[in-house]
Amino acid sequence: MIMAKPKPTEEIIREIKDFDNILVAGCNGCVAVCEAGGLKEVEILASALRMYFANQQKKIEIGEVSLTRQCDKEYLAEIKDRIGGYDAVVSIACGAGVQFMAEMYSKMRVFPGVDTCFIGATEEKGVWSERCQACGTCILASTGGICPVARCSKRILNGPCGGSSNGKCEIDKEVPCGWQLIYERLKELGELKRFEEPTPAKDWLTSRDGGPRRLIKEVSQI
Amino acid sequence: MTYPSNIRIVKVPCTGRVAIIHLMKAIEKGADGVFVAGCMEGDCHFQAGNLRANKRVAYVRELLQSIGMEPDRVAMYNLSSGEGPRFAEICREMTDKIRQLGPNPVRVQGARKAEAA
Question: Is the separation of the CB atoms in A48 and B66 below 8 Å?
Fold first, then answer.
């Protein structure tokens, strides 16, 4: 899922301090799971903002909503009748949600309330880590199910590099070397032969190098 | 065992039930301060409820600081259910601390707004 972390409250306050009616909009998708942008976080942020502005003696109305998803027009449409009553939105969805909100309600000022971080997984309660960079051409079949694009700091396709030491990456002693992980997994699977042939250069056009991406599945279209 | 009459007790089955929003709402709705009285660390019947509460209290304290409010309005204490005198002592300690901080500015502003209206 897509991971995000809350922006510092001070930064959000700076953006919205000149508005009088704010809607704090959450998303019950990915950002709710990583406890950054769901209903609970909407309530907490709205409460903090109310207290801040009360202390500043500023009269401000703060509404709360959390949509099933902000990256789907059908769910964004649920607020079409009430959004006109606000003059700005703080969206605590991921970057896609914030942009879709701004696209759908183009006259509304929309501010992000979270920093979108990466596509990852829950290691344990409260700990999330990166697993995928959405490069568009998955090579997990040949790397024992461990992605060198996401897990190797250099994204190299033939590793490990000289910066790997005792299974850790040179960027940080806490970061496992992605290629060490791949080596160990392939060894366990009896597939170390994979290291005998170098992986050819990857076509990065399917990643960001090809510009903004779009996906069309005709059978799903109406 | 006497403790200040201004203390209002909200009973919860375990301090692990106390969510961040409960503490925020207490302050937003005008409480001058709020403390969570949990069991001794290591003595939680549900294993880690009091430890979770402690983290949430710390989170709320940081959040209050970020909006310019005194973090000391929210606190966590650990004591056993048999320590009545200690509970009374904590109540007095918290009351003194909050009295020094003064009334909750959110409530004060709310009252001013109501007067103006």
Answer: yes
Question: Under an 8 A CB cutoff, do B106 and A47 touch?
Answer: no
Whether A59 sits inside 8 A of B67 (CB atoms) is no
Round to whole Å and give the CA distance between B16 and B36.
10
Q: Which residues of B touch A113 (CB under 8 A)?
A: none
| pLDDT tens column, B9-46 | 999 999 999 999 999 999 999 999 999 999 999 999 99
The reply to whether residue A10 touches residue B113, judged by beta carbons under 8 angstroms, is no
Phi first, then psi: what are they for B47, rounded to 5°? Answer: 80, -55
- Separation CA A143–CA A69 (nearest Å): 33
The complex scores an ipTM of: 0.92
**Beta strand spans in chain A (E):** 2-6, 21-27, 61-67, 88-91, 109-112, 114-124, 127-132, 168-169, 172-176
Nearest CB partner across the interface for A55, out of B19, B24, B105: B105
Q: How far is residue A70's CA from residue A77's CA, in Å, rounded to a whole number?
A: 10
| pLDDT tens profile A132-178 | 999 999 999 999 999 999 999 999 999 999 999 999 999 999 999 99
Residues A91/A110, Cβ–Cβ less than 8 Å = yes
Give CATH for domain A2-118. Answer: 3.40.50.2300
Q: What is the pTM of this model?
A: 0.93
Q: Which residues of B touch A49 (CB under 8 A)?
A: 67
Inter-residue contact A12 to A113 (CB < 8 Å) = yes
Domain with CATH 3.40.50.2300 in chain A: 2-118
Chain B neighbors of A55, CB-CB under 8 A? 67-69, 105-106, 109
Whether A51 and B110 have beta carbons less than 8 Å apart is answered as no
What pLDDT does B105 receive? 93
